[in-house]
């Protein structure tokens, strides 16, 4: 006689939108901050002066298609 193993039932928890809202706002603001620093051209819109931020994210600028040369 062959016995078959019962497959476990996996339940997906329901997460209310109200609980996701603060996380969505947090990650949205964090993403905006990251995009600002990656795209900062050390010109009129750059908060820190100098070229430090430009040098830290130089390769990311090229990867994302921002011109910097």
Characterize this entry briefly.
The protein is an all-alpha fold.
Q: How does this structure look, described?
A:
The chain is mainly α. The chain has a domain at 34-69. Helix content is 51%, strand content 0%. It has 3 helices and no strands. The chain has helices spanning 17-39, 52-56, 58-64. The N and C termini lie far apart (74 Å).
Helix content: 40-55%
The N- to C-terminal Cα distance equals: 74 Å
* Major pleated sheet: none
Q: What would you call the shape?
A: elongated
Structural class: mainly alpha
- The H/E string reads HHH
Question: Given the structure, what is the number of helices?
Answer: 3
Secondary-structure blueprint:
Elements: H1 17-39, H2 52-56, H3 58-64
List keywords for this structure.
elongated, single chain, 69 residues, 3 helices, mainly alpha
């Amino acid at each position: 006689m062959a016995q078959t193993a019962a497959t476990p039932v996996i339940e997906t928890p329901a997460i209310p939108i109200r609980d996701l809202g603060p996380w969505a706002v947090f990650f949205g603001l964090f993403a905006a901050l990251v995009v600002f620093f990656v795209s900062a051209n050390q010109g009129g819109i750059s908060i820190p002066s100098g070229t430090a931020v430009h040098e830290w994210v130089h390769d990311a600028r090229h990867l994302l298609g921002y011109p910097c040369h």
